[in-house]
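# nightly structure sweep
# worker-07 picked up a monomer target from the shared queue
# config: single-sequence mode, recycle default, output format = structure tokens
# input follows
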Amino acid sequence: MSVAEVSVAGHFGELLQGRLGASGPLALITLPCPALLVRATAEGTAASHRPRQFTLHQPGARALTRSEAARFLRALDLPLRGRFTLRLDMPPGGGAGASTAARVALARAAGEYDPARIAHACRITEGASDPLMLPRPERLLWASREGRILAALPPLPRLQVLGGFFGPGQRTDPQDLDFPDISDLVARWPDACAKGAAAVAALASLSAARTLAQRGPNPDPTAALAARHGALGWAIAHTGAARALLFAPGKVPAGARADLRRAGFSRITTFLIGGN
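# output follows
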């Protein structure tokens, strides 16, 4: 029997997200998250084996319906056969990239690895996507509603992220462009990466604060938690429930995790990003 197994990392919201000018595209810089994965397996997909009817099994959280998965595979010109299983570490609608990561994992389990083809299929079937099909997605300015790279960016400085999910999930509406202008933050991003973690965290905090002021929810405890625990800054899923405190590596206080839990955060996790 033909069996393929792959995993795709999600993200933890965005370091920046907003419009590039009042009528410009919606752009983002993703906050990569190696701690949250979508795992996909496929059985009976090879042409040399007896074809199996296309089925989709999702124990636990469900990122895609069967019809959404079938439409995505058709967009990639892949045959609808085999038994696919998707397992998610993150909640759908949490702002951790579950929908895009599930599609990328499904494509790779079915044998398609070309990032450009996967990005195109995500755009036409999802309407809004994260750049999780691309290597080093945090080094890209990504037009999420158009599925294209706007600019290449420098590497991130090393950061330790402590975060969780606060409040209800919210699935992305591809027609929603009601975000603040971040063209000034994008212009400052390369210099911030050169200056180091504190400068990057400061810009991420500005982007998060602008979105919360314009879109809510309010009140949101993330900024206060960051200040209380001496974080360099904070970041959010600009659509969704993911919230992150940004620290220099090894500087997360011992009581910070428990404090996030008391504030109502769930599924608390920590991981390192950048520096390579």
